[in-house]
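[Help] Beginner question about ligand-bound structures

Sorry if this is basic. My supervisor gave me a protein sequence and a SMILES string for zinc ion and asked me to "get the holo structure". I don't really know what that means in practice or what format the answer should be in. Inputs are pasted below exactly as I got them.
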Amino acid sequence: MSDLARAGPGNPLAIGVDIGGTAIKAAIVGVGGELLENFHAPSPRSASALRDFVHSVLKRAKLPVQGIGIGCKGIIDAASSRVKSLPGDLHFLEGRLLSEVIDAGDLTVCAENDARTALIAEVLWGAARGRRNVVLLTLGTGVGGAALVNGAILGGAGGAAGHLGHMSLDPRGGLCICGNYGCLETCFSSRAIESDYWAHLHRAAPAKLCLDSAGQPPNTEAIFRAAADGDESARHVLDCAFEYLAAAIVSILHTFDPEILILGGNLARSSSPDRISEGCWLWRCCRRGGFGLLAATLVSNLKCTILGCPLAPGAC
Ligand SMILES: [Zn+2]
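Answer (accepted):
No worries, everyone starts somewhere. Holo just means with the ligand present. The predicted complex, written as structure tokens, is below.
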């Protein structure tokens, strides 16, 4: 019997939505945590496109829907679902109430920062079960972060706590989407790796990859494969990126002293904990200090983010 068949009137459904910088993902989920059906599309470029995507998912639900939970980049006011700060491609949502944008009638619409929803899901169903002090990084187009401190998600005075992708690693580094320079996100992210590799191509460095017919640089997955295949530029780009990531992790460990640190996102799937420690003196120092704290996520990032919607039972 399928999960959908088991879900009866006493077990209504919820819709989980993950609004990311590259793609929007959604799922119909049982409120007990079963992921029943997935949907994905390129990130919306307007509020109406976001509403239309969510309503198309709602129409696919074959049982009553209890509500809609949204994980979104940026600083989100969970109490009101207002997007307080969201620079970049999704800027059109800044200042908007996601509950109004979705316009789902009587259905409850909850929203929270996407890295926090991912961490909530890890606490409920994944690698952080039974833990009270955990840090999670989502490594993808950008870098998200969230911290569980003494059993509660850390919010901060203005709701911005845990935005670890914007910790400053190099004050003279590249310009970040947040307006600062040298953030972790400018050093270790898909965008950072792809632009660094493009710079190598531009300078005619030894490389096995090239721009495609549309002039686009290779994507991160191709760069990882090229590095494994001996591409000198790819190896250099990734070595530098991982060194920055390791430096950030050392700072995180000293700041939060977590039981475990969870890595999620596309880049976490492309690499392994060993790759992070490979050739990185900072990580080795960290291990010598007794901080053997890295744990790969046990649940896919999609499932974590979507199941961690604020509707989830017991969500922090
Ligand atoms: Zn930044």
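A couple of things worth pointing out: The radius of gyration is 20 Å. Residues 4-121+301-311 form a domain with the Nucleotidyltransferase; domain 5 fold (CATH 3.30.420.40). Feel free to follow up in the thread.
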